[in-house]
Design goal:
single chain; 292 residues; alpha/beta; TIM Barrel; two-stranded parallel sheet; 9 helices; 13 strands; globular
Length: 292
Amino acid sequence: MIFKLKRIHIIIFAVCITTIAALSLGLASRDVYKRDYDLAASDDSYVAVPIIMYHGVLDGRDNTYIIPVETLEQDLDFLKSNNFNTVVMQDLINFVHYRIALPKNPIMITFDDGFFNNITNGENLLKERGFRAVISIVGEFSQASTDTGDINERYSYLTWQQINELVRGGVFEVQNHSWGLHHTGRGYNGAKKSSRESAEEYEKRLTADVMRLQAHIFAYSGVRPTTFSYPFGAHCDESERVLQTIGFRATLGAHGGIAILKPNQPQSLFLLPRNNRTPHYTTEEFFARILP
């Protein structure tokens, strides 16, 4: 009897080992976007997340930072038909800090600068497909549109009231793109440290700027952004140190590539690569360039 029980235990153990090995080989051989990310929970696991960077969405004004409405619609249809699931920054933060699983085939859609046409020409397209997106606001742009009251999808930015409505709508997650650092010239390049200023001067300038926008977004919408999106992608070691010191949990760059997120490794949330969407490629060509 004892001998039979031992044989049963040995058989069960062998079956378990074989099953685990088969699953491991199966996961390793599948494309990274087809992995079951609910299983990616060990310290050495990771999730690869492509991030798309849009700006304006407007017909008749195609340039490096403005795409036609039809292009956005085709992009979203491609993602939907290929079973991608959109995530926002809080999802990435939750995965890294709290090991909360991401959906299968995660991808992140971002819009920079806070154009009014992101609402008029983008919000419904996202909502119809059950998608969410990140929108990064430039404070002085929104303040100017609020002050003038001149609302036009060809050139306006979101007002503070519209940002509040955007948050309430649930499609967009609002993040920080600086109050007034979205410019170059006179020795300055976005949020990057200038050679003209000391480390102390730079820290004071950067902190004052981004915290001014933090205060405005919270005052008008009740949310505090967790992520800083670098204007033009311009950054430096000092900018990363300052932003982390004042409490930002992630930063978004503008260099191409795939974001690799690792549980329990907060640094994997910083300088996340993004892929700028220009109108110069078809949907198929664009995604062939940014997806492995």
